[in-house]
Please model this.
Amino acid sequence: MINMPEVGLGTTVFWNRNEDAEEAMGRAINEGLVSLIDTAEMYGTGRSEEALGRVLSRCRREDIYLVDKILPDNATKEGFGRSLKRSLMRLGTDYIDLYLLHWREKADLAFVADAMNDAVKEGLILHWGVSNFDVSDMEDLFAVEHGSDCCVDQVLYNICHRGIEYDLLPWLKEHDVRPMSYSTLGSASTGDLKRCECNEHIRRIGEEMGLSPAAIMLAFDLRTHDLTALFSSSTYQHIVSDLKGLYADLDPYMAELDKSFPAPCGKVPLEKI
Model:
């Protein structure tokens, strides 16, 4: 299984110009608090990549594990190389550490696997993976030549959305594919963080452990072995507060948390946002 940081920052906060968020991310990188940064060509139609490029210009590239994503409509013979080079230009870097197919949609998986491997050989990317792939999608990918070179599947997962625990997480572990969770702290569309902030069990556990609800949500995802958790924050103070969940042990509280946020008892279709 690929060796990579267990926690990272997302860049959806850069959909619109946010100089404070750029400064906060740069400070967190330069102080060694985080090294993995996740973006996508879709975020703000390239604006997030451009913002991250400005952050990268103020940091040492070797201190950063960079994750980017290509849209399925661009993962074609005509579009793949063009899209990858545009992303590299906006980021101001020569390579991407991990390059993901953002969704499956109608992408030709055989072509994607070949194109990704060619990009690795060219040194434009170091590793590749997918995002929003369920078990059946992963099985289809592994059925094509070089498909098993996929090393990461980035999916929605947090304490409020535990569906992947039933079958996807076990499948990924069996096939040495590292899970990466997005919306670890929820998103504006799901309201997960607000739900956790209002939960009596999380409030009490937070008081006992000296953690915010967001830190507990991060700790929950990280208790899954070999999972990388992504979260977003627009301020340095929130980044520091959230990261307090990095080494928190929730095992003594899991029975209590399971009552409010039960684990799945059967197959749950993969949730995507």
The chain is about 40% helix and 15% strand. The radius of gyration is 18 Å.
